[in-house]
Amino acid sequence: MSDNKNPERVAAGLKAAINNPAVGDEARERASERLQNMDVQYTDKDPNASKQGTGDAHTNQVLGGYKATLKNDNAGEEAKAHARDVLDEHGASYEPMSTRKENPDPERVASGYKATMKNPNTSEDVKRNAQEYLEENDEDY
Length: 141
Known about the structure:
Number of strands: 0
Distance between the termini: 45 Å
Shape: flat
Helix content: 55-70%
Largest sheet: none
Structural class: mainly alpha
Number of helices: 7
């Protein structure tokens, strides 16, 4: 394998070749051997092991799709119940942030104010308000 190729993509290609019925037996066998010789970190990923917020973009996109199902008027009750089950299983909230009763995460609030301070399109009044919040909460900006 060439050093400039992404090993995760190479592993994905090998898996695709193994599962493609149009690929011959010999090629499947070679792909299987190459896959077995690859580093475990690229070949033994469990797609269900990741939880929301860990940075796994695919899982977060899938969970976002389930959230969208809940808002879709054309989705049946069975589909919506399944979406709720999946979101619960992953510890993801399916309520819009604006309707959640718990207090907002202080770290996210501080991050928002820090972004406000760096935004060139933000007015000076808003920046002053953000600066006051950050100073009151001992946050660097």
